[in-house]
């Protein structure tokens, strides 16, 4: 519409100028050498003046429109889409042009609002997920964006530049920021003296003339723990099914023998009791029952770990109970049992029964490890770390655990003992996971083992 009005206005001015110039040319052609100067001026001057005026009018007309367009492009250049061009005054074609400018600004502002909303929505999602994400300028090390999950995984309070990690954790910086993980890698990194398994992937991209690097981290330690916990529950379901399958034939055989005995008592002549059949049946029940009892004793404790009976417990009271239970047997074996609490008022929210079971299990493992050791000793230490988490450590000076099997000790049914069931440490780990905590182990051959129960706060 604006173009149509502009076209007609420009065409009229061009035609007027054309006819004026044509008239001027015609007037000049009628002049000859006999025409005096005054007459020539009188004839040509008005037409020439009008032509010049018309030309200037055409020039101003065109330049006015160019100035309006240039003004609009200038606002676009500086991304000033808030400007409003008047639509109520001035020539009709300029009003139409202004209306078009305003429509463009309105559309761009709508698009920007939509993009801003999408950006905020995406940013909120990225902040809520457990996957750590960071984008930073490779040349300046300035962080473009980072979510809380990334800072939590690397245990850093804030991150404006990657120099923060480079200065404080150079080894971690080299692994995470300098090495290339374009295809994705699974790594074990050391965070605050704790080994953490992560998945890492990196990508490089350009924004304008700057090069940025995107790093994505996923802590798979918690995922592995959840999967392991789920595996335990599935295992319990399978074992329950197997126990029921074992009980069914025992019950059926017992019912058959009971029926034969009842018939023999009521009518001994018609239904004589076959002692051999009775003995065979009882022997079968005995053997199957013994096998089932052994099976049940091995795994019955697993079914207890369903709900926690939490209460706030003073660690010194917990240690006192453990000392009462374990000290007599350890004294008999000449094993020193020591207790140390860094803060006498240290308390932990726990299920006392289950944590006592864990500590007893760990102490018995230490007793086993301290066999044939001179001056054996077992130490229990309670403390708080710098993050405020409570830790109970069970340390011994026993034979230790070989490096080649230390990663397998928490796997259900794995055991280095000849008669071990392989559920002791697995059960301890399951209990700590239910407490939203974790269990860590450090061991050296012929030096000893330290197992930490970490209660996260």
From TrEMBL:
PROSITE patterns associated with the record: HIS_KIN
Keywords: ATP-binding, Kinase, Membrane, Nucleotide-binding, Transferase, Transmembrane, Transmembrane helix, Two-component regulatory system
Top-level division of the source organism's lineage: Bacteria
UniProt xrefs under InterPro entries: HATPase_C_sf, HATPase_dom, His_kinase_dom, Sig_transdc_His_kin-like_C
CDD domains per the UniProt record, alphabetical: HATPase
SMART domains: HATPase_c
Group of enzyme by EC: transferase
Gene Ontology terms for molecular function: kinase activity
UniProt xrefs under Gene3D superfamilies: Histidine kinase-like ATPase, C-terminal domain
Transmembrane residue ranges: 37-59
Ranges of residues in domain Histidine kinase: 238-457
UniProt-listed Enzyme Commission number(s): 2.7.13.3
Catalytic activity: ATP + protein L-histidine = ADP + protein N-phospho-L-histidine
PANTHER family linked to this entry: C4-DICARBOXYLATE TRANSPORT SENSOR PROTEIN DCTB, SENSOR HISTIDINE KINASE
Protein name: histidine kinase
Organism: Flavivirga jejuensis
Lineage: Bacteria, Pseudomonadati, Bacteroidota, Flavobacteriia, Flavobacteriales
């Amino acid at each position: 519409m604006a173009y149509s009005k502009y076209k007609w206005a420009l065409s009229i001015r061009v035609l007027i100028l054309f006819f004026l110039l044509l008239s001027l040319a015609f007037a000049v052609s009628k002049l000859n050498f006999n025409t005096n100067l005054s007459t020539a001026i009188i004839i040509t001057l008005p037409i020439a003046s009008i032509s010049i005026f018309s030309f200037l009018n055409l020039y101003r007309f065109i330049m006015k429109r160019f100035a309006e367009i240039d003004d609009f492009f200038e606002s676009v250049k500086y991304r000033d889409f808030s400007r409003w061009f008047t639509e109520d005054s001035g020539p009709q074609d300029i009003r139409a042009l202004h209306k078009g400018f305003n429509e463009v600004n309105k559309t761009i502002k709508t698009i920007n609002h939509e993009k801003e909303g999408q950006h905020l929505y995406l940013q909120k999602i990225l902040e809520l997920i457990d996957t750590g994400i960071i984008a930073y300028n490779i040349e300046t090390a300035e962080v473009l964006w980072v979510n809380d999950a990334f800072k939590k995984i690397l245990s850093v309070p804030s991150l404006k530049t990657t120099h923060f990690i480079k200065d404080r954790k150079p080894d971690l910086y080299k692994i995470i920021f300098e090495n290339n993980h374009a295809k994705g890698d699974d790594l074990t990194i050391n965070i605050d003296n704790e080994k953490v398994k992560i998945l890492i992937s990196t990508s490089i991209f350009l924004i304008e003339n700057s090069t940025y690097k995107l790093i994505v981290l996923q802590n798979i330690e918690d995922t592995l723990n959840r999967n392991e916990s789920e595996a335990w529950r599935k295992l319990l379901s399978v074992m329950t099914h197997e126990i029921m399958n074992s009980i069914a034939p025992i019950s059926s055989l017992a019912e058959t023998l009971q029926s034969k005995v009842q018939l023999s008592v009521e009518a001994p002549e018609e239904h004589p009791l076959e002692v051999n059949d009775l003995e065979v049946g009882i022997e079968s029940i005995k053997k199957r029952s013994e096998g089932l009892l052994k099976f049940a004793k091995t795994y019955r404790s697993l079914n207890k770990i369903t709900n926690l009976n939490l209460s706030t417990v003073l660690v010194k009271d917990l240690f006192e109970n453990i000392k009462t239970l374990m000290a007599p047997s350890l004294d008999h074996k000449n094993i020193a049992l020591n207790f140390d609490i860094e803060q006498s008022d240290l308390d932990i929210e726990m299920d006392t029964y289950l944590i006592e079971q864990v500590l007893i299990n760990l102490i018995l493992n230490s007793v086993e490890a301290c066999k044939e050791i001179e001056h054996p000793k077992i130490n229990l230490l309670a403390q708080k770390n710098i993050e405020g988490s409570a830790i109970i450590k069970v340390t011994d000076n026993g034979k230790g655990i070989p490096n080649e099997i230390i990663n397998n000790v928490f796997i259900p049914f794995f055991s280095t003992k000849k008669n071990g069931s392989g559920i002791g440490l697995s059960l301890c780990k399951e209990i700590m996971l239910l407490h939203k905590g974790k269990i860590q182990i450090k061991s050296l051959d012929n030096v000893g083992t330290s197992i930490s129960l970490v209660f996260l706060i």
